[in-house]
Write a structure and sequence with these properties.
260 residues, alpha/beta, Rossmann fold, Arc Repressor Mutant, subunit A, 2 domains, five-stranded parallel beta sheet, four-stranded antiparallel beta sheet, 9 helices
């Protein structure tokens, strides 16, 4: 079934007008791209997220979404898994990951853990099962954004960059470099990297990394951490098969193997 769960709020027309008003009122609000082929679903999501203070742009197809992503900056993409008549949601997600680290939340009617892992392998940061409630979607969006944005109050002290071997990590700027080259990490990959790099030699279980990087909703899917680790190794290791930075402690979990 497509769309929000029965009982989700139904909103009147005029989404664009309301969105424009909020856009003008708060230009610093997070920008969300909603990609779904069903106009009613897009309208419901847009209206609800706009009322929650987000700046929302809609796309009806995968091709349109990719075009919008090339033209503008977005903080997060809400992406339907099953997009007809062009690139699917998975294909769009894979294409996004070729050039961008923007956060991606997949909307899917699939419930198998194997399907969730496929989405994660394509670079998604989270997923929401259909049918869903708008409150759940908004909560997931905020959770992912908290992992990707450093928005602190006036008492915030900028952390010093972490230097680990050839890696330089700037937590507050969501930047990681290896030998001066920027690494294109997803928000979840960056969170895992920071968690491990801050405590070299300390072993983290899959469950601990799931709670830190993915949130409590994923404590039963801790094996999905292996997928994120695999992608992360491909980006930071000279030889992913013999990792120098992220090492496996068999039967326990992972640790960061390079001290400062």
């Amino acid at each position: 079934m497509h769309g929000p769960q029965t009982g989700a709020p139904v909103f009147p027309s005029g989404v664009n007008t309301v969105a424009d008003e909020i856009l003008q009122a708060d230009p610093q609000a997070s920008r969300i791209l909603v990609v779904d082929d069903e106009p009613r679903v897009r309208s419901l999501i847009t209206q609800y997220l706009t009322a929650e203070g987000f700046r929302v742009t809609e796309a009806a197809t995968g091709a349109q979404a990719l075009e919008l992503l090339q033209e503008g900056q977005f903080d997060l993409v809400v992406l339907d898994w099953m997009l007809p008549g062009g690139p699917s949601g998975l294909e769009v997600c894979k294409e996004i990951r070729r050039t961008s680290s923007v956060a991606v939340i997949m909307l899917t009617a699939k419930t198998d853990e194997a399907d969730m892992v496929i989405g994660l392998e394509m670079g998604a940061d989270d997923y929401v099962k259909k049918p869903f409630r708008m409150r759940e979607l908004a909560a997931r969006i905020r959770t992912v954004l908290r992992r990707t944005q450093a928005r602190h109050g006036g008492d915030y002290t900028q952390p010093a960059p972490l230097v680990r071997g050839d890696l330089v990590i700037e937590p507050d700027k969501f930047i990681a470099r290896k030998r001066g080259r920027d690494l294109m990490l997803t928000p979840t990959e960056f969170k895992i990297l920071i968690t491990l790099a801050q405590r070299p030699g300390v072993v983290f279980s899959r469950l601990q990394l799931s709670e830190i990087a993915l949130g409590e909703d994923y404590v039963h899917y801790e094996r999905s951490i292996d997928t994120h680790i695999s992608h992360l190794r491909k980006k930071i290791e000279a030889n992913p098969a013999q990792p120098e930075y992220i090492q496996t402690v068999y039967g326990v979990g992972y640790r960061f193997g390079v001290a400062k």
